[in-house]
Amino acid sequence: MSKGRPLPAKSLADGLSWARRAWVVLAWLSGSMLVLSVGFYLYIAFVSYVIEHTGSTFRTGADSAAFQVMLNASGVFDLCLTVLEAVAILVFLRWIWLSVVLARAVNRESVRYAPWVAVVGFLVPIVNYWMPLQVLIDLEAFAAAEEERPVSAFPWYPAGMVFCGFLAYGLWQIVNATPVEGFSNPAASQRLMQIAALGAIAHLVLLMLSNAYMRIVSTGQELALRELAETERLTSAAAVRSDVP
């Protein structure tokens, strides 16, 4: 991808703008569903706590029709959330790809990896322990250089995003790896629901950090797009003059 015909500044600007807007919509939808998930998980943990200590669901609401509806809809709800998260990840990776393309178009040495390598680095096990962090740091440094502002000594947003991503994934893997029989014990079910709630909260923090990060680098990207557009204009003008006999 990186060795093909360079994308013009307008195409980059349109692509980045579309990816940013689409990601914000998906993040709001996912975030709203995650908030509901946190409440649901904590409620299940509360019911499990009551059952563990009293042996009954009396006054917990677990015997109500509304609770049964929630339980029946939880599978579809989780499927919709998974689809939204998958699409949000793809859109974010599209934004990463375009951001790296822009950075390399303005200053080829500003980022360590080619666009396709940067995207693959988010997906491949083992290398995704360090490559996403490096890509995010490079893009933030590039944006800061365009704005002529200093970069923080510690990459708080990139580090926070990577940490929350692995934390959310790890916590949810614990829950998903638990056999169905593990939820039958009230004490174990309570702990698993607390873990699931923590995973959802970590994912919410990841969304907030990602949104803040994209906002931080957007100003520098806008300046870079103007610089690239001006360079294209001058190059086009020079080409026209060279064609005039």
Automatic annotation (TrEMBL):
Statement: the UniProt record of this protein carries the keyword DNA damage: no
InterPro entries: DUF4328
UniProt domain DUF4328: residue ranges: 73-217
The protein's name in its UniProt record: DUF4328 domain-containing protein
Origin organism lineage: Bacteria, Pseudomonadati, Pseudomonadota, Alphaproteobacteria, Hyphomicrobiales
Keywords: Membrane, Transmembrane, Transmembrane helix
Spans traversing the lipid bilayer: 21-51, 71-93, 113-131, 156-175, 195-214
Protein origin, superkingdom: Bacteria
